[in-house]
Amino acid sequence: MYPVVDEPGGGSLSDPLTQVIGHRVHEARRRLRLPIRELAEQTGISKGMLSKIENAQVSPSLATLARLAVGLQVPVTSLFRGFEEEHDAVFTRAGEGPTMVGQGRRTGHHYEQLGTLRGSRRRMVPVLVTLSERAEVFPLFQHAGVEMLYMLDGVMVYQYGAASYRMGVGDTLQFDGDIPHGPLELVELPIRFLSITVDGERPAEP
Fold first, then answer.
1. Alpha-carbon span 67 to 79, nearest angstrom
2. What is the band of 114 on the pLDDT scale with cuts at 50, 70, 90?
3. pLDDT per residue as tens digits for the range 183-200
4. Whose CA is closest to 130, among 190, 195, 196?
């Protein structure tokens, strides 16, 4: 039997981690159909403290989380489940994505990255491509991963290996990035298309 503890508050309703822990504790207790009174007796955590934890009004210590995990018959790590996923969400407002620059970028050719996750979760790179001039010949690109194009405006002929595809609004093209590809002819300007590269080692150059 644990001695009864009642911790000082350390979290707030605006603390995402505190909210996730509170939700997971409540969820596990409801699954066991365990009244707060019984959980308090099993863990040595006061009923008032348990209520505050479940309502995200206090951030419990690691020692308290360990007691809760035993009483709820779950791994400690399960009480954090969902925090990383929520924290990883990337929101990019229209027109505010970073412009991609480098070799091959020209006047009238605009590449806007629409946000991407970081670290090991960076498996997808979405780019909004706008082409407003047809003056230059396009190089062909190659990169790791697979790519999908979705036409938003205009008409173009897109080359993939030895094949070419006339693409208009609403058309989609999917292909392996390691095969040479790129716009072959800009038919109707301006042209806008969404390029999404998945599992690539670096952002594609559409």
1. 12
2. confident
3. 999 999 999 999 999 875
4. 190
CB atoms within 10 A of CB 130: 17
How far CA 59 is from CA of 12, 79, 172, in Å, comes to 8, 12, 48
The DSSP bridge partners found for residue 45 are 5
The alpha helices in 62-201, defined as continuous H runs, are: 62-72, 83-87
Largest separation between any pair of C-alpha atoms in the chain: 80
pTM, entire model: 0.53
Strand partners, 74: none
DSSP letter for 172, please.
E
As beta bridge partners, residue 192 has 130, 153
Q: 190 preceded by cis ω (within 30°)?
A: yes
Provide the token pair at 109: 């050719």
Asked if residue 105 has pLDDT above 80, the reply is: no
Residue 64: band (very low, low, confident or very high) from pLDDT cuts 50, 70, 90: very high
- What's the pLDDT band for 20 if we cut at 50, 70, 90? confident
Cα–Cα distance measured from residue 204 to residue 141, given in angstroms and rounded to the nearest whole number: 8
d(CA 178, CA 38): 60
Place of tokens 């897109």: 158
Q: Which of 135, 59, 118 lies closest to 84 in space, CA to CA?
A: 118
